[in-house]
Amino acid sequence: MPWGLSTTASSQKELREPKRREWIDRQLIAELRAPLKPGDTELRWTLAGLLLADLAAAGVVMPFSNQEMWVLIGAWVAVTVLSIAAMLRSRRYSPGGLWWFLITLLTFLGWNWIALWSVDLTGLAAPHPRLGWVIGEVVGVLPLVFTITLLTLKLRRLRS
């Protein structure tokens, strides 16, 4: 019965796949919980620089209408450059620190877009249209603030 054989082979393959995925998930969680290296301080300062640059760009663009897209495009370019630079210097960082950095960059980009669009669609700042941009940008940098705080706490544990 060819049908029965292929079903058995595919069911065995399906059984093996979740086990491999579980191992990858456990490995990632273990790396995220692992202690950091002193070189991970660079990652924290890079995230802080991205936070300040994003807020500064939003402040500069705020008086001009229809220029918000340039800040978002600039954020995408900056995140791409920072990701490539971090990967080229990956030997200086712990696996956990590098994972926190890369995950935060991706989360920042997605969260920033979601925050800006949700403020715009809800009409939260309808009386003052530029206020929506400011609220969206401030809420959009929350993933950066979270990871900067987390890396700071983990690096303090490393020193003590």
Verbal overview:
This protein has helices at residues 2-33, 41-61, 68-88, 95-122, 129-140, 142-159. It is mainly α and 160 residues long. It has 2 domains: 1-33; 36-159. The longest helix is centred in the N-terminal third of the chain and has 32 residues, at 2-33. The protein is elongated, with a radius of gyration of 21 Å.
Enumerate the spans where pLDDT stays under 50 for 5 or more consecutive residues.
Answer: none
Shape: elongated
- Helicity level: over 70%
> What value does the average pLDDT take?
81
**What's the story with the biggest beta sheet?**
none
Q: Please tell me how large the radius of gyration is.
A: 21 Å
**How many separate structural domains?**
2
Helix-strand pattern, N to C?
Answer: HHHHHH
Structural class determined from secondary elements: mainly alpha
Oligomer: single chain
- Distance from first to last alpha carbon: 66 Å
Percentage of β-strand residues: under 5%
Q: How many strands in all? A: 0
Helical segment count: 6
